[in-house]
Amino acid sequence: MKRLLALLAVLITLPAHALTLDEITATLRAVDASRARFVEIRTIAALGTPIERRGTLSYARPGRLEMNVESPVAERMTIADGRMTVESRGTTRVVDLTRQEPLLAWIEGIRSTLAGDEATLRRYFEPTVAGTLDRWTLALVPRDARLRSLVARVTIAGERDRVRTIEVDEVSGDRSVTTIVPLSGDAAR
Fold first, then answer.
1. What is the pLDDT of residues 148-164, one digit of tens each?
2. CB atoms < 10 A from the CB of 71, how many?
């Protein structure tokens, strides 16, 4: 009887199945658009004090990302159609991402996760999934040697169809952690 109870205890604690990247991306593909507030804490090895940025993020299918930084300095960064546009302090810069492969790959890690684009995620990263659909973690290790010389890992965590945190660990020891909270009208679907 003790063996049977021990076996039942083990079976109860085992997950029904291992979460897959396909399950996470399928759930995220159902999101057409989202808006959220963010707080990014960036720790730079050469600085004694972390840098904190706050603002809003928006995503619209198939791959438009916009980050509006409200503090410490107003800035807007838009990613769409293979270009990144940065507006800050009265100037505008446009970067052709197709000519900046490491930057493109880093951005694709975030854009492809939000879009539920498993093929692109696998193109640029070696993904590892952990958790359940209610609380998942996606660790992305760059495939490209140039990006891997800069970024050790990108870890994205979420709940169902929501990304909650994005952590970027750089080879240099620098690190950023972005916490994302849906805006009130976008909190539940």
1. 998 999 999 999 999 99
2. 11
